[in-house]
Amino acid sequence: MKKRVFDVVIVGGGISGCALTYILAKYSGVKSIAVLEKYGSLAPLNSNARSNSQTLHCGDIETNYSLAKAVQVKRRANMIVRYAETSEKNDFLYKFPKMILAVGEAECAKLEARHAEFAADFPYMQWWDAEKIAEVEPAVALVDGKPRAEKIAASGCTDEYSAVNYGNLSRSFINAARKFSADIAVNLSTEAKKIQKFDDHYEITTLQGTFMSRFVVVSAGAHSLLLANQLGHGLKMSILPMAGSFYYVPKMLNGKVYTIQNDKLPFAALHGDPDLIEPNKTRLGPTALVLPKLERYTGGTYWDFWKSLKLDFKVLKVFWDLMKDSDIRNYILRNIAFEIPGIRQKLFVKDAQKIIPGLKQSDLTFAQGVGGLRPQVIDKVTGELKLGEASIVPENENLIFNMTPSPGATTCLSNAYRDAQIVCKALDIPLDKQQLIDDLLDGQDLS
Fold it and tell me: Is domain 5-97+158-440 annotated with CATH 3.50.50.60?
């Protein structure tokens, strides 16, 4: 009996793999798709609601984005909003107030200039003084009912989508995809161990059997690079896994409160968020910590880290360049201390009081098991730490390898659109671009 050959095998059942499954099922002529997920459920790792900040990144409150990038990310994020509007069950997208908070004269001046620059492209963002902040987020503006000592201002809004449960969204994509294609095989507890190339197909070896495919898309986080390396791709890339931890406090915020990014720091600034799965709590974080493993809270993957690190003088130089800057060095050392029981609350509360000035150490609880791990890519040719999304698309191969740190979850549908075009062109399969553009992009294609 001849073995079955799928049109597309997608390795990884997180938000990226599920989004691509949906786009291919609804908008392309792809007939058969297999999704291989290592664990026993969809979205078990970084797409899980406990592993990320549950933020729809729109470029409006992320001060490390240039205006051009913010506008680009906004359009891509809006694809999730458009999808939600047509979804039979929206249990993944929520509206909360959100703001960028400036504290002190210098930050207020900087934020005011940014607000003016972004006003035309983000007209819903309002300039808030301390009095308005107190209306929206009393805990940010007041201490024991009195105005906080420092000057504060904010750029914010109250009626925009701001939070996403990416785990629920992943499951929604698969459920929706099955309505457009009966031939979608989701294989849980199925880890891709090896990918081999043959004349007219690829074979993916798992403990549950071998899957054959005309095209393979790997969206397996940090493990994508290891699978690419098996086939001789991405050998000049290295992985720096960055973990983020969080703290819980009793519900003190009504929405998302972001702070201004230090331009020298390549990691996320502290923010406060409502928690979609712990509604009576506010989540504060993240911290930033390098961990010598590729998955957090699952055990193992230490050896996988060393294989993906490919430690040499070029990688060491990236580490040296980071550590020789005093701002970055102090930030890294302080974040290591945030992980040490006994002292972490005492240290963290000082930073968190920038958002909630009346916060007490006794209010803080370390969020056990919360926080994911993001694969930051090191380019060993240029010696740069690449903080954005990274993909490997080998020429003359029916392969894509995606490593998608933030805002990869927010831009999952635009990334899927990009990959679907590559897949359909390689397989000579039609893709209804115009219908996708009309449905998800308000009739105007991405530039």
Answer: yes
